[in-house]
Request: fold
Amino acid sequence: MQSHRARVREISLDKSGEAQAWIECPAAAVPTPGRYVRARSAVGPDVVLAQALFAAGRKKDGFLTAPPIPVSWTPGSEISLTGPLGKGFTLPVSARRILLAAFSPTASRLLPLVDQALANGADVAIFSNSIPNDLPSRVEVSPLKLLPENLAWGDFLALDLPLELVENAGSLLGLKSGQFLPCPGQVLVFSPLPCSGQAQCGACAVRLNRGWKLACEDGPVFNLSELIHAKI
Amino acid sequence: MPKYDFGINPPYLNAAGSLGFAPRYKPEPNRPTLGALVTNPISLAPRTPSQGPRFAAYPGGFLLHTGYPNPGLSAVIRLHAAAWSRSPLPVIVHILGQSPAENAQMVQRLETLENVIGVEVGLPPGVSAAEASAMAKAVVGETLVIVRLPMEQALELAPLMIDAGAAAVSLGAPRGALPAASGKIIEGRLYGPAVFPHALQIVRSLARQNIPVIAAGGVYSQAQAEIMLEAGAAAVQFDSFLWT
Reply:
């Protein structure tokens, strides 16, 4: 597993008041949408656990993290990144209408998909209870409660779903028992990742129709159709 | 130098559950050099993860409630025994039998595996003295036996384990309760630097009774590991420090 030296360039607050950081790092360390890197201080452990970092924005020389970040970080902090780890989103190039929906308090982890989708010439609609910063004007933003009535518009759906809501995925999407999703989709199951895949500790275990899987190793992005108990 | 010699040099290990079923470990700067690897807890039959919230943080550490999910001994041997035999460090397999007979059955299958130098027997929280003794006696034989005790019961149970023939006792994470992010209160194992003072006190008490104890709990630096050795520990296990 590859480790990279990196540096905190800037810390800012997102619209919900959560801290996020710009990280300067080699291009190989920038996580693609849905993947994560394990981050720790380069000068020695200063926190109880390493931090799993997802990108909210990406450039060749670094990335903007999705919240949270360790409180001990300041601009200039030297950090070590391991990864990228896990399996991320695969946006179909043919998809023309992309639905992004965040059931987590922040939509940040979905935002790198916006750039990808727009680059593919797709239309993008985001459903979230927190409105992300600096979105291109072409992106439509709506409250989360409007997602079920707009599902039929999309030809690909990407969700950010906290682990504790996985059992309710179908009802959150407004699907009735036995009803199928009108389009394919993927879900980032957001969970604490205490061991970040080092120990198969089980804290991030997700029940799919092919058995129990770990978000840290097998995900955190899964196909929506694998959540059988969501009846979709 | 540690008072007891288990052939583990340096006298540092990972705690069960901290490095997976086929532990791989490469020391980095500010990380300990280990003398042996301990597997994740393994039961005879497969175990699924616990339901509901499994993680809660607090300022001095965090709580885990995972149910020790694992695919069961047969699957673990099939998947990982080859990696154990190739490991540059000797391997200690942590077993989680539900009864003395289960533990004996598991040890029988493990003691012939290459590079497996012993077992660590995990005891459930709240285990009675009689049950604990029976668990230990069932596995004592040719192989190195370490019994991992619930930290809260270590002072009571440790002498019984040594009398039963265990080579040493180790300390399991203490238990606690915390509200998860959802507000629901969950119970589970406590990790993090806040555990260290409690663990050190227990290690000192056991060492004064000449009980071989493998220290564990909140060890977050090499300096703290050395303090444990100076307090009389035979060896030291690192747990969530390896996840920082």
Notes: The longest helix of chain A spans residues 111-119. The mean pLDDT of chain A is 90.
